[in-house]
Description:
It contains seven helices and seven strands. By secondary structure, the chain is an alpha/beta fold. The relative contact order is 0.13.
Amino acid sequence: MGERPAALVTGGAIRVGRHFCETLARLGYDVAVHYHRSAEAAQETVASLRALGVEAHGFAHDLAGPDPAALVDRVVEVFPRLCVLVNCASTYRAASVAETDYGLLEGEFRVNFFAPFLLTGAFARRVERGNVVNILDNKIAFNQYQYAAYLSAKKALAELTRMAAMEFAPRIRVNGIAPGVVLPGSNRSADYIAWRVEGIPLKRQGKLTELGRALAYLLENEFVTGQILFVDGGESVAHVGRNAEAYAPARS
Length: 252
């Protein structure tokens, strides 16, 4: 491999993960594109990254399996200048606390918390200096019980972001990005997206480029660690709660 620094992006083959891979390539990083089942998409992403003038390789690995941290060792063998880890891979299943069984709870935590936890530890053991960026969700600002297992895992990952930042300072900075309505699932209707936008103070949907700029900021500002950057148009701070001054009793 060449003299460029390298980055590993979990879930890097598709959607937001692919954009982070492209952002890193434009910043001058060689890129390790992790995927699980998206082999064809990973090949396309790798080709697009190489077209940007950097080296890129795909790495298939099941982060829900017994040894997610082994991915870091595999990547370092190919990219010994690894210095960035972006924990982007995610699973997302809706279920309330009452509707959640052990299998669903374990599955959400394996991918959304256990894997980034263990990957971060492996990264810290193999890398002298670098950055970890955890991709969260602006839902961590709320208590939406309809996504109980998923959101509990993401809230735990937010706490890990701050904890790991303390453990690995000063040689490794650890931060997070909490996106809002940027790339809704294909099953979301236009009416649903418009309804969500109504609750966003900036009154629009976010752009992938705005997430890319957030990643670039966290990598380039060397005096930032343990922080979670919400990129959500202010949605996470829009709920002030009810209070006496805002109360308007119904008139009879």
